[in-house]
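Human: I hope this is not a bother. Would you mind checking the protein record under this note? Thank you for your patience.
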Amino acid sequence: MITADMLIEDIIEQYPETIKPLQEMGVQCIVCGEPVWGTLGEQIKRKNLSNLNEILLRLNSVIKK
């Protein structure tokens, strides 16, 4: 299960299928081929996104498939 306190690097390493959905939702997870540092929650705050729960629901749906 993906949570807001997980590191972006760990999420994309464990669940590479989440890269595209993250990008589609406006969460930058890779820069120049390298993962973004910090947690998912921190990155969402940096991007001024307010849909944390929606993002988590979608990501967890993706990894369950």
Q: What stands out?
A: DSSP finds four helices and two strands in the chain.
